[in-house]
Amino acid sequence: MTPSSPSPPTTTTTTYTSIPIPTGDVISRSIHNLTTTISRHRPWSELVFSGDYSLPWRFSSLLLRLKTNYHYFFVNYAIVVAVCSALALITASPVALIVVGTIVSLWLLFHFFREDPLILWSFQVGDRTVVVFLVLASVWALWFTSSAVNLAVGVGVGLLFCIIHVFIRNSDERFLEEDDAVTGGLIGSNRR
C-alpha cells in the first residue's frame, strides 16, 4: 500500500446578498417598532402621583436619581416633549403643526425605527442619503412654516419639565428591569 497524498485544501467563497424588501414593508415594520416603543411607557399616575419628591442631598444621589429616572421614564419624557412641541406649534399655525409633524414622522419611520434597508425603484438607498434628505426636509419645513422659534420654545419647555422631574423625583424605591439597568449603565453585565 502506498500512502495517499493529502488533497489540496479547497476554498469556497460564499457571497451574501441582501434581500430586497419593499418600501411598504419597511414602513410597516418601522411603525410596528415605533408603537412597540411607545407601548413601553410607564403609567402616567406613576410618573406624577406616586413616589416621594425631594431634593437630593448629595451629588452621588443626584447622579443615581438622574440615571434611574431617565431610563425608567424615558418614553414618558419623550411624549411630554412631543406634546409641548405640538402645543407650541399649534399656537403658531395649524399648518406648522402638520408640516413639522410630517417631518418628525419621517425621521421616526425612516431613521430611528427602521431596521431594514430602504429600496426605492429597485435601488437600495444608503443611510447617509436618507439622513441628508431628512435634514434638508427639516430645514425646508422650518423655513416654510417660520416655526423654528415656536418649536424651540416647545422643546425647551418640555425638556424643562422633564429635567425638574428627573431631579426632584426620588428614585430610591425604583427598580429597573435587569436589561434596562444593564443598558442604562447602572449595573455591569457578565455577558460576553
Fold and architecture overview:
The protein is mostly helical. The protein has a domain at 53-175. Helix content is 62%, strand content 3%. The protein is built from eight helices and two strands; from the N terminus they run αααααββααα. Strands 1-2 form a two-stranded antiparallel sheet. A hairpin with a 2-residue loop joins β1 and β2. The N and C termini lie far apart (51 Å). 14% of the residues are buried. The model has no long low-confidence stretch (mean pLDDT 76).
What are its keywords?
192 residues; globular; two-stranded antiparallel ribbon; 3% strand; 8 helices; single chain; membrane; mainly alpha; PRA1 family protein; Prenylated_rab_accept_PRA1
